[in-house]
Amino acid sequence: MVRPNKPQILLTNDDGIGSAGLWAAAEALAELGFVTVAAPREQHSGAGRSMPQASDGVLREEQVTIHGKTWTVYAVGGSPAQTVQHAILELMPRRPDLVVAGINHGENLTTSITISGTVGAALEAAAFGVPALAVSLEMPKEKQRGESDADFSAAAHFTAHFGRLMMQADGLPDVDVLKIDVPSDATPETPWRVTRLSRSQYYVPVSPGREHLTEPVRVDFEIRFDQDLLEPDSDVFAVRVAREVSVTPLSLDMTSRVDLEQLARRLGAPTRGHG
């Protein structure tokens, strides 16, 4: 039963309704408020904040039992961002106090986060004016798009920790989303640090190597980075080198942090008159 006076939390992901990370997050967040679980019907890793026209938008109610507790959940025919839209507009009793996307199977690091369906869902929530978390657990590449036997307990701990802080903060200046990346060997006692997105490559596309251009292929990737070039205050350095939890503040405002007047002069913008 929904209790309107309790904090309302929407939980989603991009790995799909059966994801182990989703259910680890659900159990942790249940301590903070009433959790509505709505996740894509199928795997949608790499969907970003896309709104595919082919999505059918079907909302299918399901019963899922986790550790003896039965949850009513919704499998959504759409991308992670579309799932957030359907949940806020059609499922929630009111606008949620917090939206959490995750726990993702695999870290979301560097400027490649624009590809992430986990981050895309959180940004969509932010566009509704709702504070959001995008939480990911470091994993080997081969385990990032399938069933995983990973231990999500530390990531679940930090999900609840930062979820509580986001709801208590009553708004953080120019912070719409907190991106949380948890090392695979983390514990609840692992230190965390505030980071920025690294500009170094991390998920590096590789050539399909096909013989004929008409062969159907998918561009794959490999995880690769140069430790000597990493920024010490970056998300990659925190997770992969320091083995600490990375907390990266994200903003919907993607405007470059330059002097706009100086840039206008360099581009030869016409002088604006006064009065």
Tell me the layout of helices and strands.
Elements: E1 8-12, H1 20-29, E2 34-40, E3 59-66, E4 69-76, H2 80-91, E5 98-105, H3 117-127, E6 132-137, H4 153-169, E7 177-182, E8 192-194, E9 203-206, E10 220-223, H5 235-241, E11 245-250, H6 260-266
Parallel strand pairs: 1-2, 1-5, 2-4, 5-6, 6-7, 8-11
Antiparallel strand pairs: 3-4, 7-11, 9-10
How does this model look, in words?
The chain is α/β, with parallel strands linked by helices and 275 residues long. The chain has one domain: Stationary-phase Survival Protein Sure Homolog, Chain: A (3-Layer(aba) Sandwich), CATH 3.40.1210.10. It is built from six helices and eleven strands. The strands form two sheets. It has a nine-stranded mixed β-sheet, sandwiched between helices. A two-stranded antiparallel sheet has the order 9-10. α1 crosses α4 and α2 packs parallel to α3. It is globular, with a radius of gyration of 20 Å. It starts with 7 loop residues before the first strand and ends in a 9-residue tail after the last helix.
